[in-house]
């Protein structure tokens, strides 16, 4: 059998990187679409990228953008993919309130462009399509745990754009008999997670605070509850969804939910720092109770977490908890990581990352904090 060809949009993102690794390990030829940027943006996939002059070209990058249909048509025509994983998106919920029109274009109409390209190129029988749908579709809580049949109530321009993408995927499946599926994935994280999503923001800050490279972590809504899994497990589910005989939509989740506040406690506990929270709402703060690791000594009573209302969202999604019964039963999918193992891996990776920064600082260099 000839090797399968996959095309991945969003290849430079967290999930794109893990999925590329997975597909390459399964013998696929993997093509990715990356955006032109003024600085290198391939950090997450540099370990699998070969010099284009090398013989072995199982991993190929194409310049492109989900806002450019002619570009998508050309790439899909050239690649003739067996599977397309549409992971590209402006994926930050808070930022989508600042860039709603762009978000609708990339995340909503971008999906339509992919589906139309496949249809126009007469690839509907050959090419299977995975659409990166999201638990943000559930938005304002209608029922918990959220399953494939729970009604949607999106609460951000991002979620509304993804709602269009969800339904246009269903519509093309029904109208043109395409193998097009939605994976409704709940939050999934990893050491490769973007620095401004809450988990990575926390694990980076915990590492820096423990090493005295930063004093305090400012957060928004500490009460929000999320069903957090590991991206490595979730890309397995994406792959499995496209290997089924029948195209269907699946919820991918752990079934366990945790507050942002508890994630903070767990992350500090990884560096031996016990944190307790006092106060409520905008006045809530986290204080050091004690430190049990000699290498990370902070004073008891030090204020290490503070709420800053600038991180609140105009409309918030308070509670997400997924029901993965269908994916457990039909895909045979079960996550290998639990929250504790996820937090451990993320904190350890950030501690390692900032050990280098600490070395520089200790030798007299000043490094600016560029992330919030
Ligand atoms: P990331 O933000 O890490 O990656 C997004 C990717 O999309 C990046 O490669 C980015 O490129 C690319 N991209 C952004 N805009 C465009 C555009 N206009 N045209 C082409 N590519 C673009 O997201 P994740 O990897 O975490 O998520 C992958 C997908 O899954 C996204 O669609 C996200 O919305 C969705 N999702 C994610 C969940 C999660 O918890 N991680 C849960 C449910 C759904 P660049 O690197 O240049 O910015
Ligand atoms: P989310 O992830 O919005 O669920 O979308 P994010 O990590 O940004 O927020 C999770 C929750 O934490 C609260 N929060 C903060 N969030 C951020 N980013 N920064 C803060 O300082 C902060 N303080 C509290 C948020 O209000 C929210 O309730 C992610 C993205 O990957 C989407 O693309 C994806 O579709 C969903 O997960 C499922």
UniProtKB/TrEMBL annotation:
Catalysis: reaction(s): GDP-alpha-D-mannose = GDP-4-dehydro-alpha-D-rhamnose + H2O
Sorted UniProt keywords: Lyase, NADP
Pfam annotation, one family: GDP_Man_Dehyd
Record GO terms (molecular function): GDP-mannose 4,6-dehydratase activity; NADP+ binding
EC category: lyase
Database matches in HAMAP family: GDP_Man_dehydratase
NCBIfam families: gmd
Family of this protein: Belongs to the NAD(P)-dependent epimerase/dehydratase family. GDP-mannose 4,6-dehydratase subfamily.
Role: Catalyzes the conversion of GDP-D-mannose to GDP-4-dehydro-6-deoxy-D-mannose.
Protein name as annotated: GDP-mannose 4,6-dehydratase
Organism from which the protein derives: Mucilaginibacter terrenus
Gene that this polypeptide is encoded by: gmd
